[in-house]
Design a protein that fits this description.
Elements: H1 12-25, E1 33-35, H2 37-44, H3 48-60, E2 64-67, E3 71-74, H4 79-103, H5 106-125, H6 128-146, H7 149-159, H8 164-168, H9 171-190, H10 193-217, H11 222-226, E4 233-235
Helix pairs in contact: 1-3, 2-3, 4-6, 4-7, 4-10, 5-6, 5-9, 9-10
């Protein structure tokens, strides 16, 4: 894989954290592997400083541990941990949807419908980046309509754990997302709380299942189930 070059920007450490987090959550970097600062910085085309800051952020999120005199180690992550992330997302998204249903204006609903069309266009053309961006815009539209800034921030923080690119490249997820987005749009227009809840629950249940299946196929839990000692490998994030 070609090196990923990140431009020098004030929020660079956040972008590095996003990159590393996605690699961890997609199983490309496994629990028990060390993340080397120098190698990661060279791979991403940045200095060591934003990488160190990013790893401090991920340590606070429980994704990596600092081992004295050795560096940062990817933390253990169980199937239950993955399920808990999606349970948390479901609770927050349901609460936000309840408020958005009551507060969406006709103009905002028309805009939301266009975002759904943008998502479907990206799916048809196989544009993974477009799929990620359009789905983000759809969720942001609902968050804004809810006028619940604190809840939306909590949801955004929890959603950082999701490997969006992994989903965008999965045909089964894309097909389900097209249907979910259409059903949610109808629920918002009809102020149908029950259907909105059902869509959210199905969306995140499907997301959890797909991610767990992917991590199992990637062998993320093989070493833990075999009783292997952690910290035996090092990872540079390409």
């Amino acid at each position: 894989m070609a090196p990923t070059r990140l431009a020098q920007r004030p929020q660079l450490s956040e972008e590095v954290a996003d990159h590393v987090r996605a690699r961890i959550m997609s199983g490309e970097v496994r629990p028990g592997e060390f993340i080397r600062l120098d190698e990661t910085a060279a791979t991403l085309g940045v200095s060591v400083t934003p990488v160190r800051e990013a790893l401090l952020t991920l340590r606070g999120e429980g994704l990596v541990d600092l081992v004295p005199r050795r560096g940062y180690l990817v933390s253990p992550m169980s199937r239950e941990d993955v399920e808990d992330i999606f349970w948390h997302l479901t609770i927050l998204a349901t609460r936000i949807a309840d408020r958005a249903i009551e507060r969406f204006t006709p103009e905002a609903l028309d805009h939301h419908a266009r975002l759904v069309e943008d998502f479907e266009a990206a799916v048809r053309t196989g544009d993974a980046d477009g799929v990620v961006g359009a789905q983000y815009a759809i969720h942001r539209s609902i968050n804004r309509a809810s006028r619940s800034d604190k809840l939306a921030r909590f949801l955004s923080t929890a959603a950082r754990y999701l490997p969006y690119r992994l989903y965008a490249e999965d045909e089964q997820w894309r097909t389900a997302a097209v249907e979910d987005n259409r059903r949610m749009l109808t629920a918002l227009r009809d102020r149908d709380v029950a259907t909105a809840h059902a869509v959210i629950e199905a969306e995140y249940a499907n997301g959890a299942r797909l991610l767990i299946d992917h991590l199992e196929r990637a062998g993320v839990w093989d070493d833990a189930e075999a009783g292997a000692e952690p910290g035996t490998e090092a990872a540079a994030l390409t």
